Amino acid sequence: MIKTLFISVLLLLTGTPGWAEKASQQEEKTVEPFYNTEQEAVQLKSINISGQNISYRTTSAMMPIRDENGQVNAHIFYIAYTRDGVKDLGKRPILFSFNGGPGSCSVWMHMGFLGPRLVAYDEEGFMPKPPFSLRDNPNTILDEADLVFIDPVGTGYSRMMPGQDPHRYHGLMEDIESVAEFIRLYTSRNQRWLSPKFIIGESYGTTRAAGLTAYLQSKHRMYINGTILVSAMNLGVQPGIDLSQALILPHYTASAWYHHRLQDSLQKMPLPDLLKEVEAFSLNEYTPALIKGNTLPPKQKKEISQKLQHFTGIDSTIHLRHQLRMDRYTFRRELLADKGLVAGRLDSRYTAALNDRTQLSQFDSDPAMNHWNGPFTAAVTQYISQELGYKTDLDYLIFGEVWPWKGMHESKVGEMLNQAMIQNPYLNVLIMAGYFDGATDYFTIQYAMNHLDLSGINRDRLHYSFYESGHMMYLRKADLIRAKKDLAGFIRQN
Length: 494
Description:
Largest sheet: 10 strands, mixed
CATH architecture of the largest domain: 3-Layer(aba) Sandwich
Order of helices and strands: HHEEEEHEEEEHEHEHHHHHHEEHHEHEH
Distance between the termini: 63 Å
Strand content: 15-25%
Number of helices: 15
Helix content: 40-55%
CATH topology of the largest domain: Rossmann fold
Number of domains: 2
C-alpha cells in the first residue's frame, strides 16, 4: 500500500508515466476471473403447477458466437428450462426470452415472470425488507413451453473474447444478428427446428424481438409462431410532439386514479372504463387542439386545460403554464407535489421523496428501479451458483456497459415485423402493457401498431393485454396470474 502511494506521488512529481506504470504493474498483479467457456451445469428439478407435478431440466451454459471465418468472437450465457419426458419435441413449444436496456440481462423476465423460481415481492409488487428471498412460481409458463433465457453480449456472464472489440455487438442490427445466431445454434444443437417457436422481449427487448423475428425469417428461414412484446417501445413509429402528448394522457389519468387525485365520480369508475373515456378525449378533442398551436382560441384553450385538470387532478393553471403540453417528467413532479413526493417513471405506483434539487430525466434514479435492483441482483447471483450449480468468478452484470449503442435512433424494426407478418400469415403478435408504465405507455404502442400497417390486413393477428400495474406488471400477484393465463392462451392458439 505504501509502495503504491509512493509510486503515485512520484508520477505526479516527475511526469514519467512509463516508469511509474511499469512499477505499478510489478506491484499489483491482476487476477483474471474464472471464465470456463466449456462449463455446462445441468440440474433435474420439479415444480407443482395447478396441482400437477412437472419435472424439468435446467441447463446453464455458454454458446460460442463465431464470425464468418469461424473464429469465436464472444460467448453468450443462457439458462434453459426443458420439460422432462417429452417424446415429441415437434409438439412442444419453445420460448426465447430477453430483457431490454439496451444493456440489461434477462433476469427480470426470468425471475419475475416466466421462470420456475421468483424473486419474492409482496402481493402488490412492492419490495420486501431485506434480506431478500426466492420462491417457487406456480404461474411459470413451463407447463406450456420450454424456456431459454438469453443474456446478450456484455450482460450477465456473456462476454467478448479477450482482444476483441467489447462493443462489436452493441448496436441495433449487430445485437439482432448476434442473438439470432445464438437462437440458430441453440435450435440446431437441441433439435428444435420443428418445435413451435416464440420470442418474448421486454422494453428495448421488444425492439430486439420485432427485428429478430424478421431477421430469423429472412436470414435463417426460421419462421416464428408468435412474438410477444412486453412493455413495448414505439418500434420506430414517431408520432410527433403533439400526438405524443395526447397519447401519454391516459397514463397520466391512470396514475392520478391510483393515487386518488381525481374527483369522486372518476375514482369510482373501474380503471379500464375510465381510460376508454380519456382515450376518446385524447384523440377527438385534445389532439386537434394541440395541432392548432398558437391559433387555438383562448376560450377553447381554457376549456381544454379544465378537462386536463379533470383527467389528471393537476390544476388547470399549471397546464396553461405549460401550453397544454405537460411532459412526463413535469407530470411526475406535479402529481404528488403537495405531499412532497415524485412518482415513478417505470411504474407510477412507486414514489420517492421530492426536494428542490430533484431534476427528473430519463436517466435519473427512478423510484421503481430502486425497488427492483437490490432483490433481483441478490437473487439471481445466488440462484445461478447455488441452485443451478453454475460456478464462475465473473460478475453477473445486471446492466452492462454497452454505450454508445449504434443505430439507437434509426430503428425500423416495426416495419421489419410488419413485413414478417405479411410473409408469414401464421405469425401473431401479443402486446402486454401496464397502465402505470410512463416509460413505454400502453396507448402509444397501440398507436404504433395501428400505423405500421395502414391497410389493416394484419390487424386480426395483433392481440393486446393490459394490466393495473407498471413496466414490470408481473410483479403484482393478480397481474402475474392473469399474464400467465394470457400468455398460455396465446401459445396454445399459435
